[in-house]
Records
---
Amino acid sequence: MNIIVLSILTLVLVGAVAAIVLYLAARKFRVFEDPRVAEVEAALPAVNCGGCGFPGCHGFAVACVEAESLEHLVCTVGGLATQERVGQILGKKANTFEPTVAVVRCGGSCEVRPRTNQYDGVSSCIIAHNLYGGDTGCSWGCLGLGDCEAACKFDALHIDPSTLLPVVAENKCTSCNACVKACPRSIIELRKRGPKSRRIYVNCVNKDEGEAIREACSTACIGCGKCADVCAFGAITLTNNLAYINPDKCTLCRKCAPVCPTNAIVELNFPERKTIDILH
Amino acid sequence: MGGIHPKGHKLSANHHIQEATLPPRVVIPLGHYLGAPSTAVVSPGDVVKVGQLIGQANGHISANVHASVSGVVAKIDGHVDASGYKVPSVFIDVEGDEWLETIDKTPEVKKECTLDPKAIVKKISESGIVGLGGATFPTHVKLTPPPGKKAEVLIINGVECEPYLTCDHRLMMEKGEEILVGVSILMKAIGVHEAIIGIENNKKDAIAHLHKLAIEFDGISVMALQVQYPQGGEKQLIDATIGRQVPSGGLPLDVGAVVQNVATAFAIYEAVQKNKPLFERIITITGKSMTHHGNYRARIGTPLAHVVEQAGGVPEDTGKIVAGGPMMGRALSNLEVAVAKGTSGVLFIPTLESERKNMQNCIRCANCVVACPMGLEPYLLMTQSERSMWTEMESDRILDCIECGCCSYSCPSNRPLLDYIRLGKTSVSKIVRARLVRKN
């Protein structure tokens, strides 16, 4: 009996002393943190994706509090609402930005881009890319091994088993840039979402010359320049046999897509084209 | 340290070197495995002769490229190389076989070399000679030691430790005297009085042959080495022959050694004594399912398909076609790839042997650690690479890896160790290069 009481007393005493020491130490070594950091952090999406360029949401919150203006601090994942909330908390002008979305610029599905050999190595794009040109005749296009899918934290990218190309779920994509960084061939690009999610882009990154590309893939950009000629706004540039549509200049007039001989220009979320449009 | 003992399979060891026929069109790559691509000095429509300069070296670590056939330049365009990526190449339509008049085509061995060391290095550089063991590092760079370093011994690599390949073996048997003259020229160029030719014990005939010939040459000795892969690696060969270890991140010159391949020595002989630039090499065409093995002297730029055709075509049971040996070679995606200066052979692997086996978990058996000739820990490097731990990989000496493949070969769980280590090596060297640029 005595022993039980004694042990309880000893433990209580040790606990009390330790608690006092810890309390004093915590007081003495307390690190002051701006209370607004916690507030800002609570307003952020808390996914720690790193898309903003900081190590997670806490790092971004600290940067927001310390910065003089929010101009270069963007949380694309939270979107405009989050941005405004952060501005309110800090009493700074909220940053506005045009929402973007990931766009996969390769149309080389199994049908249009025949396989020329079989890859049986590690199922990782970057390893295959370092090793060789890929299992098709195009050494620029998508390898289809899913590094982007693995990098996406928002379940927004999936490899379509029938085409072996990644498909972006627009409603889930937060344009955090993770897939862009993961792709060893720089196929994925963040582009403006556009009004009603309407977008026009060149669905290819191949910089080879026309003749060689046609053998490898029937929907590749061959660098003929027809689209650039037809564009009235100077939005299309042709460098290294590859057309690029500048989203800042593009007015979504839809003149370029019908002239492309290989259908390499993609129009997304547009209403069905009227026959008369195609004639002109 | 480390190493493995794969079966030799030297099926074509007794097949004499044959002349490969000229293809209708050659594609001569201007790019090199290491260093800057050369600049083309011919344009479409130009008529060229065998041995004429067509690509000018671009900077110090680069090499000249010469026409390997006579004919008309068709175009200068990208062409896929063994990696499946396009490299700038010169396409020449073959017409006849007209050599430059300056090239000495007589078969007599010319022993006397009157050039001084500087002139020899200049000649080698002009002739576009690169290391023919496979890495194709420009030879003149190795022969110009940085200030403060002095070569003491020349080591000649006749090891040919890769299974199946026999091109160096045949060359030693058939061109032994020329190789020895080449070695003595090299000795003169770097100012050393001792040269050791290292040959593995599975080539007893070559050892005996060169040993007999070497008596006439001062300072050249032949050393028989035990059979082990990757003994043909520069650092491994230095250790095996003179017992010195090249420090991590160092060069052979740090221990006073210069290493050259036997085929390079032969090319140097031809360049210096016969005025013949490097435009052809010996390649081995072999494989278990192959009926006509052979060693062929092929012009650089000949499509591999053309040489293979001469050797009886692609055998029926073929799972993979590899350019080079089975350990370090590259699986080809296309036989239109041209013979490059570093192509040592074409190997046909039967379907059953070519398949990758299922990967299983690491059982920490340390076979890879035992096998690694550079003293690294491959299992750890692979895990780090999977997790993108580049800083840790750098301090674990990833850049020392020679990509010999002993780790993947020895793994009982069939783990793709080398694939991941290569990825790590590329990433770490990118970081290191970026750091150097920032510093300067």
---
Amino acid sequence: MIRTIIVDDEPPARALLREYLAADDEIELVAECANGFEAVKAVAEHDPDLLLLDIQMPKLDGFEVLELVDGSPVVVFVTAHDEYALRAFEVHALDYLLKPFSEERLRVVLERVKRQLGQARTPLAGLAASLRAKPLQRIALRKEDGSIQVIPVARVDYIEADDDAVLIVAAGAKLRKQQTLGDLSRELEPDRFVRIHRSYVLNIERIEKVELYAKDSRVAILRDGTRLPVSRSGYARLKELL
Amino acid sequence: MRRGELALYAIGAVAAAALASSAFLLWNRGTPIGTAIIAALPPSLLLGVIGLASRHLCRAMPLASASRASIAAAAGGSAVAASGLWVLTWRSWAAMLPQPIVPDFTLLFGLGILLYLGTVAMQYLVLEVDASREAEAAALRYRVLAREAELRAFKAQVDPHFLFNSLNAVASLCGTRPLDAREMAQHLADFFRLILRLGAQERITLAEEIDLVKRYLAIEKVRFGDRLDIRIAVDDAAAECSVPPLLLQPLVENAVRHGVASVVEGGTIDIHATLRDGMLRILIENPADPDRVTQRGEGIGLQNARGRLQTVSEGRAALRADEAEGRFRVEIELPR
């Protein structure tokens, strides 16, 4: 059986998928979700083989859902926006259904899904990052207690490397996300976030001043008094922007 | 031509006319022409300067708004005063000349009045020409703006994804609720027909626009279900007001697309219209997630609406938008 989850914020869209899927004996519908939060929870709970995923949803969109889920279900985007669908198609690993779609079209997609279920699959998180629109407008992460937090990038003060993860500092709170600082900083708006040090990416709107600390080493002082080290190449990048 | 230059030319023209005519009067009474010109020069220059001051009178009493009688009284009064000054200058200057001359002061007084009134007439002419040129330029500007705003408005009128998603909903209803599917198809057809019909008109009533908005929301209600609530309150007097077509529809579409759709639990779209003191006030309010990812196109609807309001009301209407505590508000003020 193919354990399947439907994610769409519109009830009629879920109903249509449910009806079409019911005709396929191999499909077992294990959950229906109306938003991204429910989707992340349901994937953790059911570890599905197939995820039929809408993209434009409130709070947590389809790409952000993919970034936050573990496991590697086959993902099929279901959207009315062909610009997303085309991006999904480009990377081959995913398929897409363009709303409104025919039952025939769904059959073709399901055949492809069944063929792919037997093969090795790409982990989802990396794929999601490559598909997502850039620059990043908000950072989605899962906290230790399993709850999901979405931080608009405008609220981020700075980001600190922490082994192979990052600590995102926003309004005094530190949140850990499993992603390297290099990967994350490449997705951020380059005019706003600067890599001032091997271990730090700074939101330049938070800078109060930069002081010479010792020969060849500087320190950035933020509005809230935080002091962060600035390397020589970091200072060069900073100077270019300021 | 610059303003200072123009004033110099005006002084010169009036002074030259005064000089020529008064010197002619003197020469006519037997004064040699050279003496006559020297005698006429200073008073003529003075009249030129006084004549320039008539500009302020013309500015203060525009032909279009001031009454004929008050213009005549002001012009007549200042003409008598100006001419009095001119005759007085003549008297004292004539007495100072090496060969004193005695001009006909009554005739000079009449001449002063005529010259001054001529200056006033000239000033009015210049003002009128300026005003009509400006009005023409403004009208052209408005026509161009109106054309652009219309084009943009019609291009951005309906998001095609609205149609795709609605058709998907129709397909869904066909399976389980065929009667609802029929109704939805009918709503869609009515909505697009109405868009075409209303869009072709110059002005429609607010009641017609609200009808369009209701049809649009009825379709979205099927898609969003419990997440979308609608509250519409329009005064009877406000409903009769005329508005440019498809002014509210894109704003309400924004309220759904960037507003209710961005909130997990959804919310209510409030539309409120009143007519007070000849001013139509329309308020559209909706919930919106302050942390939403701003999509391409957000803000264009507002910009278009603002542009159209400007052109149809020639700058007398206003559109304000603000967002606070998870509520997005658009307020329109349009003179009746």
